[in-house]
């Protein structure tokens, strides 16, 4: 039967508030309970016999429910927050080890209010010990608890139903009806939650879905999720220090967590997570995540993510470093990866990779083989290929005093772009060259422009094999441009050449005489030739 005594609650139509504002001065405790319940939306459960005659006072402004309850009741009562319930207990009741040697066995059934349908997989737990059980297919449950007397507060919770708390005594069958919520808002599972469910125990997952509470403990020890000092309610605990031999599953971390393989937090991390394989957080990280394989934080990260393979986060404020890939939803600081950095928002800082960098809006520097940004609001890109919608990405056909036929690709932003180029002279000189460099482009007037470029070239002969040795030509050039048609610009200007040629084969030394014959400075020392000369370049950009 449903208990008719020792249970009082106030239920209001307002939603449950996360912050509480109260101003009570020497009011009876029953009046304080009613005021608190109206303000917060939380219900109260208690034995009326424990209420004291002393009035209570509290003045709080926009603080958490837990802190507000502590301010109001801590001097006279102990309290537990379970879901949307606040349970008041006498001061002398402890939550430590029970002195009872024989447990109290509590049995009953859970039905749906109105339809009387039997409810399966309902979470039933005693509020002191947090020992949970699940109802069976017939809605029946049985739970053994150790208490210093013959009474217990039992919490009953199921997803999509209003939770409830009852006070029961030994030796009776307690039938409970749960009311289905009028409007159920189904939360779409995020990728991290789905991933956590792959590693967690089925009972742990079911209790996590059903129960809305959080507890704090200083120490958590786990073999695997569910086999731990926090038991099947591990997903409701916030830990200060957690050691997981294989893997652990908790609500949040406020301290240090170590795992041989896996750390999982449903919510946030404030501290340090170290795992041999993977760290997964459902909310934010304020501290350090370090894993041999992968770090995943669904919310923002303030601090560092260091992953042997990859890192995943919301907004990143700090450092992401991975052997392969980094992913974020924007951020500032540094992303460094062996292969790929991806930021779907604005990134302010450095993206450095051995392969590809991407961000929606760049406010900083990208260094990689390929750099892509939807737009660059400040900073520049340094790579083989740079692409941004508001940047510079042009092809050029040109002729110069060394190679009459040249093709170049220039990409980046106008103040700083990179250059890939190659040229050929199939005539008397019989040579070809390839090079790369960087430049800076500036408008003078509506159609006029000037740019400054520096490129590094290797020049090879067409009629010989590849010439080993030191073969470097550096060019500095200034070019004046004029736009004579849409998307076409004519550029021309002087080029300063400087060549250092030191082939391994002495027979190749004469190759340097095929070009730069008007040198204004030249020196020869054995096989080493160094010379400088002025040349020209004329090009068409499109």
What does this structure look like?
The strands form 6 sheets. This protein has a 19-stranded mixed sheet that branches. An 8-stranded antiparallel beta barrel has the order 32-33-34-35-36-37-38-40. It contains 4 helices and 40 strands. It is mainly beta. Strand 36 and strand 37 form a beta hairpin. The chain has 4 domains: 19-90, Phage tail protein beta-alpha-beta fold; 104-178, Sandwich (Immunoglobulin-like), CATH 2.60.40; 193-388; 392-541, Porin. 40% of the residues are buried.
Which structural class is indicated by helix and strand composition?
A: mainly beta
Q: Report the principal-axis shape.
A: elongated
> What portion of residues is helical?
under 10%
Q: Radius of gyration, rounded?
A: 36 Å
Largest sheet, strands/sense/barrel: 19 strands, mixed
Taking all residues together, what is the mean pLDDT?
A: 86
**What is the number of helices?**
4
**Which stretches are low in confidence, meaning pLDDT under 50 for 5 or more residues running?**
1-14, 93-101
State the domain count. 4
Please summarize what this structure is.
The protein is mainly beta and 542 residues long. Helices cover 7% and strands 57% of the residues.
Question: Would you spell out the secondary-structure blueprint of this structure?
Answer:
Elements: E1 19-27, H1 29-40, E2 43-45, E3 56-64, H2 65-73, E4 77-82, E5 85-90, E6 104-112, E7 123-126, E8 132-134, E9 140-145, E10 151-157, E11 164-169, E12 173-178, H3 191-199, H4 202-210, E13 215-224, E14 227-228, E15 237-244, E16 247-250, E17 252-259, E18 262-265, E19 269-275, E20 278-281, E21 285-291, E22 294-297, E23 301-307, E24 310-312, E25 316-322, E26 325-328, E27 331-337, E28 340-353, E29 356-367, E30 370-382, E31 385-388, E32 392-400, E33 405-413, E34 416-425, E35 431-443, E36 448-461, E37 469-485, E38 488-503, E39 521-525, E40 528-541
Parallel strand pairs: 2-5, 6-12, 13-15, 15-17, 16-18, 17-19, 18-20, 19-21, 20-22, 21-23, 22-24, 23-25, 24-26, 25-27, 26-28, 27-28, 28-29, 29-30, 30-31
Antiparallel strand pairs: 1-3, 4-5, 6-9, 7-8, 7-10, 10-11, 13-14, 32-33, 32-40, 33-34, 34-35, 35-36, 36-37, 37-38, 38-40, 39-40
């Amino acid at each position: 039967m449903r208990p008719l005594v020792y249970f009082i609650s106030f239920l209001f139509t307002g939603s449950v508030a996360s912050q509480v504002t109260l101003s009570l001065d020497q009011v009876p405790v029953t009046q304080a309970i009613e005021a608190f319940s109206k303000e917060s939306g939380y219900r109260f459960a208690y034995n009326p016999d424990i209420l004291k005659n002393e009035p209570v006072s509290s003045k709080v402004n926009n603080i958490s429910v837990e802190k507000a309850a502590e301010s109001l009741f801590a001097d006279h009562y102990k309290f537990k927050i379970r879901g949307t319930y606040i349970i008041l207990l006498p001061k002398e009741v402890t939550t430590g080890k029970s002195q009872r040697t024989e447990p109290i066995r509590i049995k009953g059934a859970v039905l749906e209010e109105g339809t009387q349908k039997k409810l399966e997989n309902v979470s039933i737990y005693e509020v002191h010990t947090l020992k949970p059980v699940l109802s069976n297919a017939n809605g029946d449950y049985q739970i053994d608890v150790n208490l210093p007397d013959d009474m217990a507060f039992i919490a009953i919770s199921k997803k999509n139903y209003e939770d409830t708390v009852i006070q029961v005594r030994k030796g009776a069958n307690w039938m409970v009806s749960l009311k289905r919520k009028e409007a159920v808002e189904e939360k779409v599972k995020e990728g991290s939650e789905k991933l956590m469910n792959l590693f967690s125990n089925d009972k742990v997952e079911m209790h996590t879905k059903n129960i809305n509470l959080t507890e704090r403990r200083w120490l958590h020890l786990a073999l695997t999720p569910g086999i731990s000092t926090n038991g099947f309610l591990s997903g409701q605990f916030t830990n200060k220090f957690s050691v997981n031999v294989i893997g652990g599953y908790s609500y949040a971390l406020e301290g240090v967590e170590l795992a041989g393989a896996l750390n999982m937090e449903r919510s946030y991390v404030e501290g340090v997570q170290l795992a041999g394989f993977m760290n997964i957080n459902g909310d934010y990280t304020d501290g350090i995540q370090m894993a041999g394989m992968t770090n995943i934080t669904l919310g923002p990260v303030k601090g560092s993510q260091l992953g042997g393979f990859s890192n995943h986060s919301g907004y990143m404020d700090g450092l992401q470093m991975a052997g392969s890939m980094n992913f974020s939803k924007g951020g500032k600081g540094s992303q460094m990866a062996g292969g790929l950095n991806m930021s779907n928002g604005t990134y302010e800082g450095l993206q450095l990779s051995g392969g590809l960098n991407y961000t929606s809006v760049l406010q900083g520097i990208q260094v990689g083989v390929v750099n892509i940004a939807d737009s660059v609001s400040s900073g520049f890109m340094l790579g083989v290929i740079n692409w941004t919608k508001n940047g510079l990405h042009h092809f050029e056909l040109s002729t110069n005093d060394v190679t009459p036929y040249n093709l170049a690709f220039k990409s980046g932003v106008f103040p700083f772009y990179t250059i890939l180029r190659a040229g050929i002279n199939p005539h008397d000189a019989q040579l070809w060259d390839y090079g790369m460099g960087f430049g800076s482009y500036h408008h003078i007037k509506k159609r006029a422009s000037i740019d400054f470029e520096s490129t590094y070239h290797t020049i090879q002969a067409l009629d010989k094999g590849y010439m080993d040795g030191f073969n470097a030509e550096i060019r500095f050039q200034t070019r004046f441009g004029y736009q004579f048609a849409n998307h076409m610009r004519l550029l021309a200007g002087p080029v300063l050449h400087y060549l250092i040629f030191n082939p391994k084969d002495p027979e190749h030394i004469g190759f340097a005489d095929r070009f730069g014959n008007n040198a204004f400075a030249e020196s020869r020392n054995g096989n080493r030739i160094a010379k400088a000369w002025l040349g020209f370049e004329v090009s068409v950009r499109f």
